[in-house]
From TrEMBL:
Belongs to the nitroreductase family. SUPFAM superfamilies: FMN-dependent nitroreductase-like. InterPro entries: Nitroreductase, Nitroreductase-like. This is Nitroreductase. Its cofactor is FMN. Residues 203-221 have a biased composition (Basic and acidic residues). The lineage of its organism: Archaea, Methanobacteriati, Methanobacteriota, Stenosarchaea group, Halobacteria. Keywords: Flavoprotein, FMN, Oxidoreductase. It comes from Haladaptatus litoreus.
Length: 221
C-alpha cells in the first residue's frame, strides 16, 4: 500500500493560479480547541452564511438554510442532542445546515434563469418541471438535500478558516430531536451540525491522509 501523505508533504504551489486557496484547503482543520471566553459576533456570523450561500447547487436552486444557536441554555441542549460533544459549548455557536427535500425555490430561480437570458421561457418551464419531478421522489429529494447542503457546509468551514476561526462538522446527533428542538418544517432535513468559534490555540497534528495512488481510479474503479 502507498504511504499516506502528511500535511507537510502536500504540494501547495503546483500549477496554482490562486495558491492561497490551495493553502487554505490544506491548512483547514476540524478542531476541537475553542476559546470559551471569546464570542462570534453577529457581523461575522452573517459573513459566514453569505460565503456558504455562494456554494454551487443543482440548477442554482440553493436548497439550503442555516439555523444558528448561541444561547447558553440552548447550546446545552444541543450538546445533549449531539451525544455529549462538549466542544459545541466551548465554541459558543452551533450552526445546523439543513437541506430542502423539495424544489421550493424553483419558481423564483428559473425566473432568474430567464431574466438573465440563460434559458428561454419554454426551456425553463420544461427544465423546472423535470427538476420538480425529480424532487418528488422521496429518496431523490433527500439525496439532493444532503448533496447540495454539504457543499454549502464546506464553504462555511473554509470561510471560518479564512477568518482564523475554528469550525468542526458533525453528523453525530439525534436527527429527530434536533428537528423538533429547532422546529424544522417538514420539507427540510438536518444535514450537518457545525461548531464554530474563535480558536483556543493549537490542535493536534493532522492524522495522515490516504495517498493519491490509493484513492484515484482511472477510467474505471
Amino acid at each position: 500500500m502507498s504511504q499516506n501523505l502528511s500535511s507537510e508533504e502536500l504540494d501547495v504551489d503546483h500549477d496554482a493560479e490562486f495558491p492561497n486557496v490551495i493553502e487554505a484547503l490544506h491548512t483547514r482543520r476540524s478542531g476541537h480547541n475553542f476559546d470559551p471566553e471569546a464570542e462570534l459576533d453577529e457581523e461575522t456570523l452573517e459573513e459566514l452564511i453569505r460565503d456558504a450561500a455562494i456554494a454551487p447547487s443543482s440548477y442554482n436552486l440553493q436548497p439550503w438554510e442555516f439555523v444558528s444557536v448561541q444561547d447558553e441554555e440552548r447550546l446545552d441542549e444541543i450538546v445533549e442532542i449531539a451525544y455529549g460533544q462538549e466542544h459545541i459549548r466551548d465554541a459558543g455557536t452551533a450552526i445546523l445546515v439543513v437541506g430542502h427535500t423539495n424544489a421550493k425555490t424553483a419558481d423564483s430561480v428559473f425566473d432568474e434563469w430567464v431574466e438573465a437570458g440563460r434559458l428561454d421561457e419554454e426551456t425553463a418551464a420544461e427544465t423546472k418541471a423535470q427538476t420538480v419531478g425529480m424532487y418528488d421522489d422521496e429518496r431523490m429529494g433527500r439525496d439532493y438535500a444532503i448533496r447540495n447542503a454539504s457543499l454549502a457546509a464546506e464553504n462555511l468551514m473554509l470561510s471560518a478558516h479564512a477568518r482564523e476561526l475554528t469550525a468542526t462538522p458533525m453528523i453525530g446527533f439525534d436527527q429527530e430531536r434536533i428537528t423538533e428542538f429547532l422546529d424544522l418544517p417538514d420539507d427540510v432535513i438536518p444535514v450537518m451540525l457545525l461548531a464554530v468559534g474563535p480558536s483556543g490555540g493549537e490542535e493536534p497534528e493532522r492524522l495522515p491522509r490516504r495517498s493519491v495512488d490509493e484513492i484515484l481510479h482511472k477510467e474505471s474503479y
